[in-house]
Amino acid sequence: MSLPHELLDNIFSFLPPSDLLACSRTSSDFAHVAQRHLFRHISVGVTTKNALIVLLLAKNPRLARCVRTFRMRFQPHFPVFKSFHDALATALANMTGLTSLELHLGFCSSSVLRKATLNPDTLYPRLRQFSCSLPLDATVVGFLSKAPNLDSLSLDHIPVSVDLPPFIPSTVIPYLTQFAGPLHAALALVPGRSLVSIQLHDGDLTGDIVQALAGSSSSLLLFSASTSSPPLPILKSISNSMNKLMYLRLMSTRNFFDVPDRVGFQRKYRASSVNNSSDIFPSSCRCSLQHP
After folding, report:
1. Sheet-wide strand order for 178-181
2. Which phi and psi (to 5°) does residue 206 adopt?
3. Which residue in 26, 93, 103, 230 has a CA-CA distance of 20 to 30 Å to 76?
4. In Å, what is the CA distance from 134 to each residue of 20, 113, 202?
5. CATH code, 143
6. CA–CA separation, 226 and 246 (whole Å)
7. How many domains, the chain?
8. 263 domain residue, yes or no
9. Each residue of 60-70: pLDDT tens digit?
């Protein structure tokens, strides 16, 4: 008498990988259930020495659909053969059950997402977190359009030119709430989306940029950025535009010896248009002002 797959699935969820591997060799029924758990979480890198699993996922779409979290991290200038690059592109197109994806690739090419982008039947409805070192180009935007429920996006790529990212309609990743990455990408992604967290890795924050980022993010709770402008006007712009902040981290290249603390800042602007000093920065807001 065979057990229901639902019961086997629950039992196998408590087994370590070594036992799952043994069960997968027992019978075909056990194999299908055990493989769903064996391939659920995959991490590939120089130290893991399991890059061949990419070839397996490229050749076996059924196994690829079992993957829920996929993490790949290679050092810059790490040599990658074209055959592996093509296999990775196929494997990513097959992994439509992903909930979390991390791609930190030394070769830094968004072409690994092109196959998934060009296939109209490829969707990632479960994908909630995406982190990569790829530039925000048309291919990455096309991939984002395949993940309608994406909640968190992190872009580690630092642009080497002033080229603007492609237009990103508000219908792409409409439920995005957390963003970390370069300023030019934030200006393309944040408008039209209600974010609660914005962390900028580069760029020069100005008052106009603060207003642009806060315009559609009235519920913003965390904000991190750097600026070369005098800190006090930037702080006032932030306090006026992001009045629900719980945490603020501002790094400035200006001299910070004359920057007042919260009490001094409130006193300085008490005589201006602000009637209640507690409206400048709520007592619950944690502020961190740093100098490199």
Report:
1. 41-45, 69-73, 100-104, 129-132, 152-155, 178-181, 197-200, 222-227, 247-252, 286-290
2. -130, 170
3. 93
4. 34, 10, 15
5. 3.80.10.10
6. 18
7. 1
8. yes
9. 999 999 999 99
> Is 39 contained in some domain?
no
Q: pLDDT per residue over 67-94, tens digit each?
A: 999 999 887 666 678 888 899 999 999 9
Six-digit token pair at 144? Answer: 């984002």
Q: Which two tokens stand for residue 86?
A: 């093509």
Residue 1 lies in a domain: no
The Cβ of residue 175 has, within 10 Å, a number of other Cβ atoms equal to 12
Torsion of CA 101, 107, 109, 115, to 10 degrees: -70
Segment holding 115, helix H or strand E = helix 114-118
Match 């790490």 to its residue by tokens.
78
Phi-psi region of 279 (alpha: psi -120 to 50; beta: other; left: phi over 0): alpha
Label residue 121 exposed, middle or buried (CB < 10 Å: 0-12, 13-18, 19+). exposed
| Domain that residue 199 falls in | 57-290
Entry pTM = 0.83
